[in-house]
Amino acid sequence: AGSGAGEDMRTEISTAAAFVTRLLRAAGGVGEEQLRCFRECLQEAMHEHYKHHWFPLVPSKGSGYRCIRINHKMDPLIGKAAGMIGLSHERLFQLLPSELTLWVDPFEVSYRIGEDGSICVLYESPQPGGKVAKQLESRISCKEEWRIGRSSPSKSYNMMTVSS
Questions:
Q1: pTM recorded for the entire structure
Q2: What is the pLDDT along the chain (164 residues), one digit of tens a residue?
Q3: How many whole angstroms from its chain centre is CA 23?
Q4: d(CA 35, CA 31)
Q5: Residues ≥6 apart with Cβ < 8 Å to 104
Q6: Which positions ≥6 away from 15 have C-beta within 8 Å?
Q7: Which cellular component, as a GO term, is one annotated location (predicted)?
Q8: DSSP for the chain?
């Protein structure tokens, strides 16, 4: 007991908060102590915001609710954390990408900068307990099929024998 949904999302939340903090650090002009405070405030705000919207058994459920978004409007969670260290929304828009989408889902944290940017995965972990093995298997087999489709083992074996 004691390990409720809140416990399970710590890694995902700290990954996401650390990522936004790194973006701020890279932009410059924000002190380390402020950055540390920002990261803690953001983690707290996310934890509070997500606690009834975290479904490890159905990781995609609530994904839109948990999505952190900057797109001509500042994400309220980032805005709140920045407010704690005295950064205005205007300043944040200068420091952070003008278009950022960050998806914080059970077992996966990913982001996209720009509307047409590619999606990059920051954190990914296998889903525990095999309760959602069906989903996981289909994802893996999908990737495997793609690999197998590109070069079948027999072809690469023949190429090796030819070259030897």
A1: 0.74
A2: 334 444 579 999 999 999 999 999 999 999 999 999 999 999 999 999 999 999 999 999 999 999 999 998 999 999 999 999 999 999 999 999 999 999 999 999 999 999 888 999 999 998 876 444 334 333 333 333 333 333 333 333 434 444 44
A3: 14
A4: 6
A5: 9, 12, 13, 16, 46, 50, 66, 67, 68
A6: 109, 122, 123
A7: nucleus
A8: ----HHHHTHHHHHHHHHHHHHHHHHH--S-HHHHHHHHHHHHHHHHHHHTTS--TTSTTTTHHHH-EEEESS--HHHHHHHHHTT--HHHHHHHS-SEEEEEEETTEEEEEESTTPPPEEEEE-PPGGGTTHHHHHHHHHHHHHHHHHH--HHHHHHHHHHH-
Look-up: residue for tokens 């990059």?
120
In angstroms, rounded to a whole number, what is the distance separating the alpha carbons of residues 105 and 86? Answer: 29
In CATH terms, the superfamily for domain 9-135 is Anti-proliferative protein, N-terminal domain (3.90.640.90)
